[in-house]
Amino acid sequence: MKIVVIGGSGLIGSKLVERLGAQGHEAVPASPKTGVNTLTGEGLAEALAGADVVVDVSNSPSFEDTAVLEFFETSTRNLLAAATDAGVGHYVALSVVGSDRLPDSGYLRAKVAQEKLITASGIPYSLVHAT
Ligand SMILES: NC(=O)c1ccc[n+]([C@@H]2O[C@H](COP(=O)([O-])OP(=O)(O)OC[C@H]3O[C@@H](n4cnc5c(N)ncnc54)[C@H](OP(=O)(O)O)[C@@H]3O)[C@@H](O)[C@H]2O)c1
User: Fold this and answer.
1) Ligand 1, from 28, 36, 57, 77: best to mutate by most atoms within 8 Å of Cβ?
2) Which distant-in-sequence residues (6+ apart) come within 8 Å of 67 by Cβ?
3) Residue ranges of the chain with per-residue pLDDT less than 70
4) DSSP at 91
5) The CATH number of the domain covering residues in 20-130
6) Which of these, 49, 10, 42, lies nearest to 29 by C-alpha position?
7) Is 76 in the pocket of ligand 1 (CB under 6 A)?
């Protein structure tokens, strides 16, 4: 399967790309370092062409309340639109355990916003919650 890993250069993404590759998948890391930017849309359509699955393990460069919300809302909207256009069959995103239980956290409010966009998108999805 072709699996595009958004944030594939990151802490979790780099390990994921390695493991998927070891299992025989075509694991494609996608992030600004490889010319793919979910905020601007740069390189997204090219990266997702022919993809069976997209896994979003990107993260905001800033955890400041407004910035992180803007990152996850904008990047998720762009990524969902590109995944729909490319006919991607499954959308996976990594969130945080108990994301909806700490509304005082700006970071977790942003993760909840990301989850809501995904669940409303109509694309088959899996939301994974990690600690
Ligand atoms: N780490 C944890 O313990 C943990 C626990 C639970 C959930 N999570 C979730 O897992 C995800 C990944 O976390 P992480 O710690 O692995 O993050 P990370 O190490 O900070 O990596 C962030 C990744 O996002 C990419 N990125 C940043 N801006 C981007 C953009 N505009 N377009 C596309 N990609 C962009 C970076 O690409 P460049 O390298 O090219 O800049 C990098 O590959 C997050 O959503 C987080 O909420 C993490």
Assistant:
1) 57
2) 60, 61
3) none
4) E
5) 3.40.50.720
6) 10
7) no
